[in-house]
């Protein structure tokens, strides 16, 4: 139903919203679509698209200013050295 509403003209949506046999949730959607169109916003359209097709994949990047603390320290030792001198990760 939502896909159908997204393909309707403004007049079709207004007519559907004013019909007495239209369920209230469809009336609410139609009214919100018309009001968004009057204001020139696309908020409801974006929300409906997200519900129909899912939100786009969002990548969060973590930039840590103190990278020195996050670096691994690798120490190569010979087998004949003591275990205390082994690699630290």
Q: Care to give the gist of this entry?
A:
With 89 residues, this protein is mainly α. 46% of the residues lie in helices and 0% in strands.
Architecture overview:
The chain has helices at 2-6, 10-18, 24-39, 43-53. It is mainly α. The longest helix has 16 residues, at 24-39. It starts with a helix and ends in a 36-residue tail after the last helix.
List the keywords.
89 residues; mainly alpha; rod-shaped
Structural topology:
Elements: H1 2-6, H2 10-18, H3 24-39, H4 43-53
Overall helicity? 40-55%
Kindly name the structural category: mainly alpha
Q: What is the mean pLDDT?
A: 79
Number of helices, where a helix is a run of at least 4 consecutive DSSP H or I residues: 4
Q: The biggest beta sheet, please?
A: none
Please state the CA-atom Rg, rounded to the nearest Å. 29 Å
User: How would you describe the shape?
Assistant: rod-shaped
- Which residue ranges are poorly predicted, with pLDDT under 50 across at least 5 consecutive positions? none
Strand content: under 5%
Q: How many DSSP E strands? A: 0
Can you write the helix and strand succession as a string? HHHH
The end-to-end distance, rounded to whole angstroms, is: 56 Å
């Amino acid at each position: 139903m939502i896909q159908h509403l997204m393909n309707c003209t403004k007049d079709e949506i207004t007519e559907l919203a004013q019909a007495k046999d239209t369920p209230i949730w469809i009336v609410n959607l139609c009214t919100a679509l018309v009001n968004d169109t009057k204001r020139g916003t696309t908020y409801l359209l974006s929300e409906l698209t997200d519900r129909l097709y899912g939100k786009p994949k969002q990548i969060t990047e973590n930039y840590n200013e103190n990278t020195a603390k996050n670096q691994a320290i690798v120490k190569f030792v010979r087998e004949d050295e003591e275990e205390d001198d082994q690699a630290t990760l």
